[in-house]
């Protein structure tokens, strides 16, 4: 009980940041609650260096609340629906994810970017922004500064995509009588769900398409989200093997059971529960409260990460990760358009 009590002050401080951040995220969805939480946390920590009794709770929130958020993401993911409706976009998704991860790997070596930062930017760009970063960070043992930097990079290109993609789609001649082409484009090339929905909704509004584009884009985005599972498992194996090679404590006897992140297993179980429930006649909207709780937990964890981040260091070291994010973003966009052209979707 004493251990729990020690964490309460820090958790409450994170909660005090998360609530207004969540409200601001609702008011400005293109920016999103997680970004507000990180920024507020980083500003506070410039004046509040010694966290004292609050540090234990802040550390708990940045790690374990973040893992709980990932588990809750699994609820509402009906694997059958996603596989059926995402079949059309699956080749594009595979190619865009591969492009981003390869670019991140190559540029990490060329630009001498810290490996964990490059991994987070590559995964965040290719899969689903903040959610992918949230899932990947504990698997590779990323520091809070590295998470904050990756989130900041993804946020920057999220905003650009939400504003520019509808204009770009019109300029390159995408079909304005149907939401299919632009929906697939937004769903495969925009990083975070908030910006996917913002860009797709704008396209629907521009051409009076109702929810055609939004429905297509969100379905494609959910299909992309499933890539969290294999990517994190592979990264867990790679990380465990590196630890073993380096002779780190606890890594001498490599086992798959140790490499497998338990919270990812719970994420899969949550998705399976949703799938079974829907097949038994339940409406997927039943899981909406859990999805909302997941989003709030991510904001709560980002507040803790912001409180543990050195904003001066982030600014000084931010140039190369930003360049990496830009190249990944451009690469994903180009490959998405190329694949749609090859498949006759655009």
List the helices and strands and how they pair.
Layout: H1 2-27, H2 33-47, H3 55-73, H4 79-85, H5 90-111, H6 115-126, H7 130-140, H8 144-171, H9 180-189, H10 193-207, H11 212-225, H12 228-246, H13 256-259, H14 262-279, H15 288-307, H16 311-316, H17 319-342
Helix pairs in contact: 1-2, 1-3, 1-15, 2-15, 3-7, 3-14, 3-15, 5-6, 5-17, 6-7, 6-8, 6-17, 7-8, 7-12, 8-10, 8-17, 9-10, 9-11, 9-17, 10-11
Pattern of helices and strands: HHHHHHHHHHHHHHHHH
**What's the total count of β strands?**
0
Radius of gyration: 20 Å
Describe the largest sheet: none
Structural class: mainly alpha
Beta-strand percentage range: under 5%
Helix share bin? over 70%
Separation of the first and last Cα atoms? 60 Å
Helix count equals: 17
Quick one: overall form?
globular
Uncertain ranges: 250-254
Concise overview:
With 346 residues, the chain is mainly alpha-helical. Helix content is 78%, strand content 0%.
Describe it.
The longest helix is centred in the middle third of the chain and has 28 residues, at 144-171. The model is unreliable at 250-254 (pLDDT under 50). The protein has helices at residues 2-27, 33-47, 55-73, 79-85, 90-111, 115-126, 130-140, 144-171, 180-189, 193-207, 212-225, 228-246, 256-259, 262-279, 288-307, 311-316, 319-342. It is built from 17 helices and no strands. The chain is mainly alpha-helical and 346 residues long. Helices cover 78% and strands 0% of the residues.
Characteristic terms for this protein:
single chain, 0% strand, mainly alpha, 346 residues
